[in-house]
Amino acid sequence: MAPEAEVESGAESGAESGAESESDQQPQQGGVTDQAVLVTPAPEQGCAVEEGVLEADQWPARVRVTEEGCRPNICTLTGPTVIDVHGDVTSVKDRCTYSLMSDKESYTDFEVLASYKDRRRTDVSFLDSVTLKDTDITVLLEQGGRVKVGGSVVTLTSSFEKHGGVELSKTEAGVTAKLELGTDIYVTLFFDGNTAQLQTTGINKYLPGGLCGGEDKETSSNQTESGSCETPYAQTPDPTVDCTMISERCYILMNEPFSSCHAAVTPDPYITACSETMCKYPDEDGLMCQFLEAYAKACSLMNIQLGEWRSNEQCSPPQISCEDSPCSDHEFCGLVSDSPTCLCRAIFASSYRESDTLGDPTVCTGDSASVSLVNCLLEEKGFSYSTLHLNDPACTGEMDESHMVTFSFDNDNCGTEVAEDNGQVVYKNTIKTQTSSDVINRHNQLKMDVSCVHAQPDVRTMGFKIKDSSMSKVVRSEAFSYTVTMKAYTDAERTQAVDSDTEVMLDERIWVELTSEGLDANMIVIVTDSCWATGQQMSNSSLKYDLVQDGCANKADPTVQVEGNGEGPSNYFSFSMFEFTDSSGEIYLHCELHLCIKANNCVPDCSGKVHGKNRKRRSALSRSRYARSTRRAEAPAFISMGWIK
């Protein structure tokens, strides 16, 4: 606890007519006077108050005299905690944007906002960015020392430069923004990517609203848009965290050299903030040092420079991290082997980790494929995307602004292998680390097979109905999708499609074409294995007549001819129209297909084959004129063509 403030006016008459008499006239709030004073902290004497006039270029520390001593108008945000100007600690538990400081009555356009996001755990939110708004200007301070003014990134130096009414500068320690409100109230904002500190200075009274100083400290009351807050997550406590031991470490702030600042900045709220956070979050990314650094920074704002403490606590001097490569929205700047790098946020990475994957599923389109890996997941595993390539070392990944690394290949480049596997056509490649020429290797190796599959249409029975004239069926595999179309024509050139106005006569010749789309015609062909007619809509009806068998025309029916089978992405067959004797008069055609790699000579050998099993049934067919049935097949996988008397 800080000692009582000792007011020192320099003369008794000054005490009666100066600051002390003004203070007596101010309203009291919880033992805090609203009198603004300039101070020169004197730890051995408590708070020494001096009269003076604030110059625009001085920016001295402003304190409020309380019953317990002096309190600086400094608000500190670090980790998930906010230490307001009263010394109270608020813990942010969700991922929202909050108002830290505003004055809707006097300065309607002024507001400071803080956004919180998850890092290594889904249930703990950390300060992620700070926004300062004023008339006609918005300044966003992000991790990595990135500053945006009006949405555009600006380059800053250690010298202050003015953007609208805001002065901005950047050093290796962090970014500072200064703003004058009215004529004698000043706001200074510092952000190093992990900790933000807001300080108000001036000779007039000013207590900011929001989490940093408002009377209502409930986080829900200071959410800027409660509807935009993301759903809180629950996570099992980290068993490696020893709360008792870590809390004792937080009490380092009670020792030298920190104790030399206690009279000006009480350490109690910083110890509370440290303990609350470290008991539920692992000591990663220099988090303990972050709390110690926050207290040291608050002391420096009170013109108190602490002695050397970082080497004893194994803390590095403050420095902007991940500046050369700013992290994307799903990343945060953390440490891997004491080196700063962009790591995955826990919520974003959770689905990948649960499925033990490093990226998204392969995207297969036509004769090409691509796969996107998450760079921060690669970094976690110790892989640099620049060391990865496909089978062909010249085919490397490309990283976009969101830090997704994409590898792309076609069927004929980057060392892609094409093969048949269990009746499927597979395009396969491998993402791997650079091959070492050394006998031994001491780095992690990655080998990730990437494949696209053209699944065989094993249950791809096609039906058709003359009213529809054709049918397109999309055949989907795990990765690829392609379309098979069956269409009937009345001419050999296949220009006169059978439609709802076409009258088909018995013994009239019909051409049926099967065409595929979405396949690489240079690599893959379709083979019509068999086609047959049934008297019912079911393809396995007992009343059946074969037209194509084993890829060849049924030689028992001399009217059947098959053309182009196994030669390309389409083929066709023709036959003379018929009907089943003593049936309903309907005829349904069904065809079964499969895919074949063109280089494997996919054309069926039809020499010498005789298919005569259905000769007797075919002879029983009668021929007369029929019109089409208007009844539509129920199963969408069929296009049924029917003729009725």
Describe this structure in words.
Helix 3 runs antiparallel to helix 4 (268-278) and helix 4 (268-278) packs antiparallel against helix 5. It contains nine helices and 39 strands.
Overall shape: it is elongated
Report, as a whole number of angstroms, the end-to-end distance: 104 Å
Q: What fraction of the residues are assigned to beta strands by DSSP?
A: 25-35%
Q: Helical element count?
A: 9
Q: Largest sheet, order of strands side by side?
A: 7-6-5-18-17-16-15-14
Please mark out the parts with pLDDT under 50 across 5 or more consecutive residues, or reply none: 1-62, 64-70, 458-470, 611-645
Largest sheet: 8 strands, antiparallel
What's the number of extended β-strand segments? 39
Sheet/helix structural class: mainly beta
Mean pLDDT across every amino acid position = 77
What is the share of helical residues? 10-25%
What is Rg?
A: 39 Å
Secondary structure blueprint with pairings:
Blueprint: H1 12-17, H2 19-24, E1 37-42, E2 46-50, E3 62-66, E4 69-72, E5 74-78, E6 81-83, E7 89-91, E8 97-103, E9 107-118, E10 125-134, E11 137-141, E12 147-149, E13 152-154, E14 161-163, E15 166-170, E16 175-181, E17 185-191, E18 195-202, H3 243-250, H4 268-278, H5 287-301, H6 310-313, E19 331-336, E20 339-344, H7 346-354, E21 363-365, E22 368-374, H8 375-380, E23 388-389, E24 398-399, E25 404-410, E26 417-421, E27 424-433, E28 447-454, E29 470-476, E30 481-489, E31 509-517, E32 524-534, E33 544-549, E34 552-553, E35 561-563, E36 570-576, E37 588-597, H9 615-619, E38 627-628, E39 643-644
Antiparallel strand pairs: 1-2, 1-3, 3-4, 5-6, 5-18, 6-7, 8-9, 9-10, 10-11, 11-12, 12-13, 14-15, 15-16, 16-17, 17-18, 19-20, 21-22, 22-25, 23-27, 24-25, 26-27, 27-28, 29-30, 30-31, 31-36, 32-33, 32-37, 33-34, 35-36, 38-39
Helix pairs in contact: 3-4, 4-5
